[in-house]
Amino acid sequence: MSPTARDLLLGDPFQRNLDLLVAAVLFVGTFVGYAIGLFSVEGGIVVLPFDATVVGVVAAGLIGYGRGALLPAWVSVFAAYLGFHAEWGLLSLSGHSLPGKLAFLFDPVSLGVFALASILVGSVAFGAGFLLRLGLDRVRGAAT
Q: Are 100 and 107 within 8 A, CB to CB?
């Protein structure tokens, strides 16, 4: 049975809540990863950080593979980007006041770029995970 559009976007409430909890963990994990130097930015103009993108893609792919929903996949990628942005704004802008750091953190242009990228990147990663699971299920079904 194929999922409905609503199920594909939202999923069941328990799984959606679990995936949103994972997104919160991704935010904190990405923030800490950049703060302690586990992840780094090599310099230049940073629009979408590589390490945060990889973390978000893996999470969205796993959500798709687990037959989750698109919305939590998008939120997971956005949380990884926001973790990078929060670390950069709150810890790396040492010469700015707290209101200046918060203004940087909640800059609508940056948040819009992250949201658009999260939808695009998250959809592709979710689709890849979903199709991988579908293909494996079909192969297993054909083998039996």
A: no
The reported pLDDT for the residue numbered 96 is 84
Distance CA 43, CA 51 (A): 13
Burial 4-14, CB ≥16 within 10 A → b, else e = eeeebeebeee
pLDDT grade, residue 44 (50/70/90)? low
Domain ranges of the chain: 5-41+48-143
pTM: 0.90
Q: Is 138 exposed, middle or buried (0-12, 13-18, 19+ CB in 10 A)?
A: exposed
Q: 87: which residues sit within 8 A by CB, 6+ positions away?
A: 30, 31, 34, 35
